[in-house]
C-alpha cells in the first residue's frame, strides 16, 4: 500500500479556525479548554507530537472538531503515533461530520490509499465513537456537539 504524503498544516489558517470554533456557538472549544488547545497546538507546531496528542485527544473526546482533525492528521502521517490510515480515517470522518472542511479534504485524499474493507471498518468505528460519545457516557450531553452531516 502506498504512503500518504505528509499533510502540511497551514498554521495561520488552523489558528483562525480554532478561534472561530472557540466561540460559544461553535462546536470546537469552550473557554476552559482554550489553554489545553493552545498548549497542544504549540506542541504540534514545534514537533512535540506526543504532548500534542495528549491535549488533542482530551479535547477530541469532548467533541472538538479541530482536535479530531489534528488526530486524523497525526495518524495519517505517523506524527508521534504509528501511522494508521484506519484511525486517521475515523478521526477525519468524525471531524468532517461536524462540518470541518479541511478534514473532508484530507479524508478524500486518504481514501485513495485504503481498501474498501479498511474504509468500511473505519466508518464503522467512527459511527460507534459518535454513538458512544453522543450518549454522554464520558461527558454531559450538553457539551456534545450534534454531527451536522452523515458519517461516511
Overview of this structure, please?
The chain is mostly helical. The protein has one domain: Alpha Horseshoe (Serine Threonine Protein Phosphatase 5, Tetratricopeptide repeat). 61% of the residues lie in helices and 0% in strands. The two termini are 22 Å apart.
Short description:
With 152 residues, this protein is mainly α. The chain is built from seven helices and no strands.
Mean pLDDT: 78
What is the CATH topology assignment?
A: Serine Threonine Protein Phosphatase 5, Tetratricopeptide repeat
Counting H and I runs of at least 4 residues, what is the number of helices?
A: 7
Tell me what portion of residues adopts beta-strand conformation.
Answer: under 5%
Number of domains: 1
CATH class call: Mainly Alpha
Shape: globular
User: Largest sheet at a glance?
Assistant: none
Query: Tally of extended strands?
Result: 0
Classify the helix fraction into a percent range: 55-70%
Question: What's the architecture, going by CATH?
Answer: Alpha Horseshoe
Judged by helices, strands and strand pairing, the structural class is mainly alpha
Instruction: Report the C-alpha radius of gyration, rounded.
Output: 14 Å
CATH superfamily: Tetratricopeptide repeat domain
H-E order:
HHHHHHH
Amino acid at each position: 500500500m502506498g504512503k500518504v504524503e505528509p499533510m502540511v498544516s497551514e498554521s495561520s489558517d488552523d489558528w483562525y479556525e480554532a478561534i472561530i470554533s472557540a466561540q460559544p456557538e461553535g462546536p470546537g472549544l469552550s473557554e476552559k479548554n482554550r489553554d489545553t488547545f493552545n498548549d497542544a497546538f504549540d506542541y504540534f507546531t514545534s514537533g512535540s507530537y506526543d504532548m500534542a496528542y495528549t491535549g488533542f485527544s482530551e479535547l477530541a473526546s469532548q467533541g472538538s472538531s479541530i482536535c479530531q482533525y489534528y488526530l486524523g492528521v497525526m495518524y495519517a502521517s505517523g506524527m508521534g503515533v504509528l501511522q494508521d490510515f484506519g484511525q486517521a480515517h475515523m478521526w477525519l470522518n468524525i471531524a468532517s461530520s461536524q462540518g470541518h472542511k479541511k478534514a473532508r479534504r484530507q479524508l478524500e485524499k486518504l481514501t485513495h490509499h485504503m481498501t474498501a474493507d479498511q474504509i468500511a471498518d473505519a466508518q464503522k468505528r467512527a459511527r460507534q465513537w459518535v454513538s458512544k460519545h453522543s450518549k454522554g457516557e464520558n461527558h454531559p450531553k450538553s457539551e456534545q456537539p450534534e454531527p451536522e452531516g452523515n458519517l461516511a
